[in-house]
Amino acid sequence: MTHMDIQFQNPDLTSAKIMMVDDEPINMEVVQALLEEAGYHNFVLEEQSLRAMETLENEQPDMLILDLMMPEKDGFQLLMEIRSHERYQHLPVIILTSASDNESKLRVLELGATDLLAKPVDPTELKLRVYNTLSSKSYLDQLAYYDPVTQLPNSRMFQEHFEWVLRKSRRHEDRLAILNISLDDFGRVNAAMGHEAGDHVLQQAAEVIREVVRASDIVASVGRTGNRNANLYRSENGAFMLLLERIQRPEDAALVAERILAAMNRPIETMETEVYMTCSIGIVTYPEEGDDANTLVRLANTARDYVKTKGGNAFQFSSSVIDMSYRNRLSMEARLRKALEREEFKLYYQPKIDVVSGRICGAEALLRWFNGDQGMISPLEFIPVAEETGLIIPIGKWVLNTTCEQLKRWCAICNNEISLSANVSARQFQDEHFIADVRNIVSATGIVPGQLTLEITESLLMQDISQNIVLMNQLKAMGLKLSIDDFGTGYSSLAYLKNLPIDELKIDRSFIMDVPQKEDSCAIVSAIIYLAKKLRFHTVAEGIETREQVEYLRRERCEQYQGFFFSKPVPASDMTRLLLNERSLAGNTP
Ligand code: C2E
Ligand code: MG
Ligand code: MG
Questions:
Q1: Ion ligand 2 nearby residues (CB, 5 A)
Q2: 57 within domain boundaries
Q3: CA of 329 to the centre of ligand 2 (A)
Q4: 115 lies in some domain
Q5: Global pTM?
Q6: Burial letters for 466-477: b for 16+ Cβ neighbours within 10 Å, e otherwise?
Q7: pLDDT of 348 strictly over 50
Q8: SS3 8
C-alpha cells in the first residue's frame, strides 16, 4: 500500500504481500502452496519469531499469518507488539492455532487478531479468510489512505510513510528531498470553471509530475528497486508532495523541480477549453536542511509559500544558503561553458626551487579563470563544477597543450634545464580518450616527455587505485613523470605506495604550515621524506612561506619546494623574467 501505482478500482489482491511467522517451516510451506493455487505469489516466510518485527519493518507486508505456539517469543507476544506499534496497529493478522481451548481464542481476539484459523487448515477456508481479509483491508486502505480525485496516496499516507523513510535514511545515511508542489491560482480554476474542471486539472497535473519522475534518470538510476524511491502524494487543495529518496546531491532535487516547471508549461485541456497552469515548488533536503519529519514538512511548505509571494512558477530551497549555492553553481556552469572559446583561461606558473642550490628547477602550471566583471575565480571554486559537468575534459586538454607549448619556449632559454608540472583531475583520468589525448599533445608539441610531470591528488588516485595504476603505467611508458599531489591527505595505503609507478611526492601544505614550530607536524614531514627516499621518490614541499621552513627542509633533505616564500604563481611573462634573471645571475658568478 505504500506505492503510488496501487489502483483503487481494481485492487489486485493476488499481488498482496503475505507474511507468515511459524517456527515450523513445513507449516508455512503448506499454507503457501495452498495460497499459490489461488494465485497469490508474494510471500515472506519467517521462522524466527524474535526476528519477526524486523522482517515486518523491512518487508512491509499487506497481511500476516501468525502461529500461536512458538519458542522464545509466542504469537500472543508478537501480536501485542504489533498492535502497539504505531505503523502496524491496523495490519490484518490471521492467527493459526491448533489450540482448541476457547480461552486462547478469546485472548487473541482481545489482543486484536483480525481472524482465526484452526490447524490443520482447511484449504477452502484458508483462501476465503485471506481473500476477505485482504479485500476489506484494501477497501479501508483506499478510503483512509488514497485521494479519490487523483488516486494518489493522501497526506495521511505521506505522514506515515515519510516517518518510516526518514528512519531508513538515517540508518543508511541516505539523502532525501521533499518537493512541495502547489498549483498556482488553483482556487481560481475551481471558482471560474467549477469543481469538475478543478478535479480534471488536478488529475492532469498529477500525470505530468508522474511523467517527469518516471523519465527522470536521477531518480530512476539510484533506486535499488524500480521507482519505489520516488513517491507522489496528494496533499491539501491544489498541492502535491513528492518524496525523493536516495538522491545524491541537493541539486538533483532542483533538477526534478526544473523539469516539473518546464513540463507544466503546456496547456491542460479541460471542459473544452485550455487552461495554463504553473506551480510553485518548495524543496527541503535531509539531512542538510532539517532532521525531523515535522520540521522538514514545515520547511518545504514555507519555501513553497515564499515562491508564491514572489509570483509563483519557480522553485526554492528552504535553506537560503543551499539555494544561493545552487544558483551560483548554475550560473557558474553556464559561464564556464563559454570560458574556453572566449579565451578566459590563463595559466600561471609557480617556480619549483631546489632546496640545496636555491635555484629554479621547474614550475607548476596553475589554472586561472578571468571572467568578465567577476574578475579572477579560484580553481578551488570552478574545478569541482568543471569536474561534475565534464567540462574538465576540454579544459584539461587546453591546460596540457598550453603547458607543453610553454615548456618548449622555456627550454629554448634554459638550455632544456627545466621541467613543468600540470595538474590532472580524476575525471580526466577516467575519460577513455585521456591516454590518446596526452600522446597527441606530447607529439604535436614535440616536448621531451621526461620534462613534463603530471600531478594527481592523492585522494583522487586512491578512489580506483588498481585501474589508475594501469593508466599510470601507460603514461610512464610514454616517458612522462608522475607526481602525487597533496600527499598525506588521502589515506594512501603503504602497501600500494610501493607499487605506484610514480616519481615524486608533494607533501601537503597542511603539514608544512606548522613546521618547524610544532613537533608532531615535524615528525610527519620527516617521516614522509624518509619514506619517499626509501621508495626512491623525489620530494617536494608545498606552500613554503618562511625562511625557517626552508632551513628545516634542508636539514631533512627534502629536495624541492614551492611557495610564496620564493614566489606566488605568476603569469608566463613574469616567469620568463625570473628564469632570465636567474640565468644572468648564474652567468655573472664565476
Ligand atoms: P595544488 O596543485 O596543490 O596547487 C597548489 C596550490 O597552493 C595553488 O593554489 C597555489 O597557489 C597554492 N600555494 C602555493 N604556494 C603557497 C603558499 O606558500 N601559501 C599558500 N597559502 N598557498 C600556496 P591554486 O592555484 O589556487 O590551486 C588550487 C588547486 O586547484 C591546486 O592545488 C590544484 O589541485 C587545482 N588546480 C589548479 N590548476 C589546475 C588544473 O589546471 N587542473 C586541475 N585539474 N586542477 C588544478
Ligand atoms: Mg598541484
Ligand atoms: Mg598540492
A1: 423, 455, 485
A2: yes
A3: 24
A4: yes
A5: 0.64
A6: eebbebbeebee
A7: yes
A8: coil
Q: What is the dihedral of CA 475, 382, 574, 569, to 10 degrees?
A: -80
Residue 350 Cβ inside 6 Å of ligand 1? The answer reads yes
Residue type, 545: E
Atom of ligand 1 nearest to the CA of 562: 15
Same-domain check for residues 295 and 358: no
What does the pLDDT read at residue 99? 61
Count Cβ neighbours within 10 Å for each residue of 299-325 and write b for 16 or more, e otherwise: bbbebbebbbeeebbbbbbbbeebbee
- Of 81, 112, 145, at which residue does a domain stop? 145
pLDDT computed for residue 9 by the predictor: 38
pLDDT at 455 over 90: yes
Q: Is residue 312 within 8 Å of residue 184, measured between CB atoms? A: yes
**Mean pLDDT (the chain, rounded):** 89
What percent of the chain is predicted at pLDDT more than 70?
A: 94
In a domain, 118, yes or no: yes
The answer to whether residue 188 sits within a structural domain is: yes
Q: Domain range holding 24?
A: 3-145
Q: Which residues surround ligand 3, an ion (CB under 5 A)?
A: 485-486, 542
In our burial notation (b when 16+ CB lie closer than 10 A, e otherwise), range 346-365 reads ebbbbbbbebeeeebbbbbb
Question: What are the cell numbers at 472?
Answer: 599510470
What average pLDDT does range 456-468 have in this prediction?
83
Nearest to 313 by CA among 384, 372, 260, 237: 260
**Rg (alpha carbons) of the chain, rounded to whole number:** 33
The alpha carbon of 380 and the centre of ligand 1 are apart by a number of angstroms equal to 8
The end-to-end CA distance of the chain, in Å, is: 89
Residue 317 has pLDDT above 70, yes or no: yes
From 308, 307, 332, 450, select the one nearest 387 (Cα to Cα). 332
Place of cell 510553485: 280
